[in-house]
Design goal:
This protein is an alpha+beta fold. Helices cover about 25% and strands about 35% of the residues. Bound molecules: zinc ion. Zinc ion binds near residues 110 and 112.
Length: about 130
């Protein structure tokens, strides 16, 4: 069976429909399944990657995203946000009692942050947007 690539607009509409039905979607895999089901027509099946779903969700504020992480290799250098591919900004935090400076990287797009011990995203939980 051949799969088709849906346009951004159609995916956005499908995501909106999913969150009209569900208050919470407990993983990216589950969200992908639900969105693909919404996109499906009698003649065509559509496929969408998890990364593309996340990107559209952040870009258009379609849902609130809870990011679960595990500790990663401190030597690994992150140049792009692992969640949304946005650029990471270096933030230096001076501890109250002077001395030690901790370095953090933050993404302005999605709120992801990491310290020296890298926080590697492992799971996403999507919540229906409460601000709407
Ligand atoms: Zn990000």
């Amino acid at each position: 069976m051949a799969y088709h690539i849906a346009s951004d607009d159609r995916i956005i509409q499908a995501i909106r429909r999913v969150f009209k039905k569900y208050r919470q979607v407990s993983s990216q895999t589950r969200l992908k399944t639900l969105v693909e089901k919404e996109l499906q027509t009698k003649k065509k099946n559509f496929q969408v990657t998890g990364a593309r779903l996340r990107l559209l969700i952040f870009l258009h504020r379609l849902a609130d995203v809870e990011i679960h992480t595990r500790e990663g290799d401190p030597r690994k250098i992150l140049t792009r946000c692992p969640v949304c591919t946005g650029s990471l900004t270096r933030v230096k935090n001076q501890t109250i009692w002077g001395g030690e400076v901790t370095l953090e990287f933050r993404c302005k797009n999605c709120g992801y942050w990491t310290g020296k011990k890298k926080r590697i995203p492992t799971r996403y939980v999507f919540h229906k947007n409460t601000s709407k």
